[in-house]
Hints:
The structure holds 2 protein chains of 2 kinds. Chain A is an alpha/beta fold.
Amino acid sequence: MSTPLLEVRNLKTHFISRTSRxxxxxxxxxxxxRGKVLGIVGESGxxxxxxxxxxxxxVPGPQGQIVDGEILLDGKxxxxxxxxxxxxIRGNQIGMIFQEPMTALNPVLKIGExxxxxxxxxxxxxxxxxxxxxxxxxxxxxxxxxxQIVNEYPHQxxxxxxxxxxxxxxxxxxxxxxxxxxxxxALDVTIQAQVLDLMRELKNRTGTAIILITHxxxxxxxMADDMVVMYGGQVVESGSADSVxxxxxHPYTRALLESIPVIDEERERLTAIPGTxxxxxxxxxxxxxxxxxxxxxxxxxxxxxxxxxxxxxxxVRCTLAV
Amino acid sequence: MxxxxxxxxxxxxxxxxxxxxxxGVKKYFPITGGVLRRTIGAVKxxxxxxxxxxxxxxxxxxxxxxxxxxxxxxxxxxxxxxxAGTIRFDGRDITKLxxxxxxEMRQDFQMVFQDPYSSLxxxxxxxxxxxxxxxxxxxGTREQIRDEVERLLQVVGLSPEARLRFPHEFxxxxxxxxxIARALALKPKLIVADEAVSALDVSIQAQILNLLADLRKEFxxxxxxxxxxxxxxxxxxxxxxxxxxxxxxxxxxxAKLxxxxxHPYTQALLSAAPEPKRNVTRDRIVLAGDVPSPxxxxxxxxxxxxxxxxxxxxxxxxxxxxxxxxxQLVACHLYA
Lengths: 322, 336
Ligand SMILES: Nc1ncnc2c1ncn2[C@@H]1O[C@H](COP(=O)(O)OP(=O)(O)OP(=O)(O)O)[C@@H](O)[C@H]1O
Ligand SMILES: Nc1ncnc2c1ncn2[C@@H]1O[C@H](COP(=O)(O)OP(=O)(O)O)[C@@H](O)[C@H]1O
Ligand code: SF4
Ligand code: SF4
Ligand SMILES: [Mg+2]
Ligand SMILES: [Mg+2]
């Protein structure tokens, strides 16, 4: 087996101030295979965005700090690179798209200019070539009027169009890894379907691996080859999406799957998970899900459960799981 | 829609069982322009909608952003005056109601919004927030009101001590419970819930959906439940209306609507909703293009610019919402 494209090992990203330490990411391990989609699912505050910003080394400082771990891209530890080397990686090897495209798009630059800039900077094209290629890229993400769109400003586009423009921009430098943080959360379902289709198609055509972050298990089921479930800054379950959906091993994963209404089934009453997500500034000892877990035993609160591989390639952080 | 069809829509319900009835309701927002700020057009946020809601029933409204769901909700609540059409509540025409008569009527319908953060005044304690509607409407002595507040907090699953704390000390789900307690204070008959669980994490969403179901059973409440989430709407509703660009394109019992959608838009919506299951092979209908602007909706059938089954007649003639088969209402020339 070849080495994975990306390996994240024991990543810890904390926000440290004089009075508190927020453990946003607290010992996260996973890997992304070449050309595959890794889905990361979790509730808000579980550390998904901070994980992806850590990989990009864009954690908001000075409070936010990567305090431990390794992030290996093709075997190279990104945490050891100089800022300059990292800038180069961000442009060329890793692309990123966000939930709100307006945060990534420059409002005063035309769409064509923004994509063109990436192409001149990272792929050494001249201005004319870049503009021509930008039209090409916009066509690839499904813009019928690409020739006109290059001359328009972000605010002239709808939410779905902006998201597609951002994907075009992220794909401009032909990254080997695309990180997509809630790329469809702000979109309508029919537009979400367009964007997901597009991402799948780009992956098949270019072989780009994708980290797809979402709180929507439906999107994961549809898109992911492998998946990671996060809770309280940690991975509580990981494995192939087939295996996790087939046999969810962590009580939290199981509860999540039972708590959502599903169109295909009639569910008399939803199985709600009592309580709320613990605060990252104040995690309990031991298992972080203990206060909400229906199976909790006293041993769960004594020691933090390890992430154990219980089935081939399928791991779970629960003392009682067998 | 004819009166006869409206009756069919409510499955031959006698008038006395109908809580809410909208007939031909429109809400246009003027677009002004030029130096004189003259009206140069209109956003047709809601464009001729009719439906009935039975007592104790939950009607779901689904559709994509901007299709007019919230505007419909706000027209029902009389927060907005309709441009045309009538609204009857509990047998009474409330379209023109204002002043004191409206304030009295208002006790019977309440709204719960998406964002529990902005809908609660951060400077008021939880107790004061829940008590406010009771005080304004003079519902008892101070002691009675305090007891009632404690009872309401318990009904929504909060401890009575919560009344001493402030909204920012609560999580999103708990704040939504506070908003619901407040909405329940005047013992309404109807609650319009506009994306009431959309901002919540899934594990919390289930708590609130279960709470809404319990309250419905306990107090015989009726809901108009607005959401863009098809699975959530299916879970809570008895009947479901699908909106597109200010119009109702399909309205039916949920079992029928979800198992046998008639309108091409409903079919596309359902096929696009991702389900948390592996290996479901579905024929996804991916619609091209974006939703057109309601300021300038397409002629004829407003869906014709994206419809995979569009015909010539669709471009010029607007299809009416009519009964097809055993009472499923659909606005599409395919079923004419
Ligand atoms: N006060 C207003 N003035 C002008 N236009 C308005 C106003 N309120 C709503 N609109 C427009 O009316 C249309 C319907 O809006 P509405 O808020 O009812 O949509 P919605 O279905 O609730 O959408 P969402 O799912 O995004 O909440 C939109 O085009 C909106 O921009
Ligand atoms: N700038 C910040 N300062 C302090 N804490 C933060 C900051 N940004 C995020 N956090 C905290 O880090 C945790 C994880 O956040 P995030 O990765 O954004 O979660 P997710 O993307 O899963 O919703 C949360 O508890 C959040 O409150
Ligand atoms: S370790 Fe214990 S509390 Fe934690 S998930 Fe497993 S059973 Fe539940
Ligand atoms: S009326 Fe025509 S365009 Fe409209 S939904 Fe029916 S077939 Fe499609
Ligand atoms: Mg996030
Ligand atoms: Mg709305």
